[in-house]
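pinning this so it doesn't scroll away 📌
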Amino acid sequence: MMATTRPSARQPLADKMYEVLLGQFMDGLWSPGQSLNIGALSRELDVSQTPLREALARLEHTGLVRREALKGYRVAPLFTERELIKLMDARLVLEPAVVHEAARRTTPEFLDELKESIEELKRCAAAPRSASVRPYWAADERFHLRIAAQCDNPFLETAYRSLGGHVQRFRLFTELGASEAESPAREHTAVYEAMASGDAEGAAKKMRRHIENAKARALTDRQAVDGG
């Protein structure tokens, strides 16, 4: 008689802890390089250490945290200028190809979802920074992830998602100025309009320009940190 496989009792709790910790990152409660004490987190969140370790292991795969031998987990440091350049160069190779394929497969529902993410980005850009950072970056991520899902190429989508944690790390540790917050919404709109008109080549060019601009903004921020 075949044994019945029961779902892990830990897994839902580990998922919840992952979301809690990710939310804390997005709310700016953790600083680059800060030590993550599992015992203290266990007491603070009133859970055992096992689901926390599982959640931190998942966060390690995103690049947001790092595990050091004999020391435990630590929040990943700020990107170096070289790392930022390499990350953005990877996006410049990948994302125009992803959006080109997605633009050939648009549907009204897909375009509505993109438009909704852009409207949310605009609302967040106009809101006070303290209230808007988390939903702002969530809307930004939703735009790029939705395009990756629409490209109908699992290899391209997986390649983009493999960069996703590093892009998230870049987002979370980037200062969000008012003018900088407005620029991505305009750039997303340009990509959307090209896709809505069925212009795959134009959408790829607009996405490339968006990533180039994001790269320039990121390097300016990085240099400001070094100068400070």
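📌 and the second one:
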Amino acid sequence: MNPYLSIIIPAWNEASTIPCTLQHLLNQSDFIRGAGMSFEIIVVDDGSVDNTYEAAWPWVDKLVKHDRRRGKGAAMQSGVAKARGDLLLFLDADLQDTAGEALVLIEPLLRREADMAIAKLPPSTAKAGFGLVKGMARRGIHRLSGYKTEAPLSGQRAVRADRLRELGGFAHGFGVEVALTIDAVRHGLRIVELDVPITHRETGRDWHGCVHRGKQFAEVGLTLLTRWKGRKQVWLSSDRSSI
């Protein structure tokens, strides 16, 4: 039986970008069907206060709306609950005219060479952050799983649905991708990282950008602490069982 692809897009206040993102995904319909796949597009509006829901509606197969903002992890979980696909492709809502490039991520899964594929985005051409969050996330993933990643914060990733179900639920907030990578390695998923020419909106070094990165730093740090405590509990349980 041919595989079925579910494209899941969590969105919060993306009315200005999501129609372009969805249109460029739909422009790749022939490519997807040429690979022998059927597909669906699922958007989860995570409590937006703009017209994200209305802007997405004409372009999608399934549309979910949270009554309040619950976080990216919860939005991803709601999307998975509605998905029928054997393969899941998670994308950010603001990729716009580069969204179709992300479909290359499903190729290693189709060839059974990987269980999860993560996009490595090109270096930013503008002054954005200072690399503190990315560096902490990269080091934390390596310390807690042994996996060396070049894209610790990438939200563009494809994964086999059956293997994803083995991991349980998603982490909350900005730590969702970090936790997903750690959990995937711990459960034995084969991961590849691919260079993909995707671009999306980046925060600058203004006050808003600093606040955003400060919150991201705190939530990624909390995620790493939670995963470290989880590993410690496993060690303690193993020690007790050997007594």
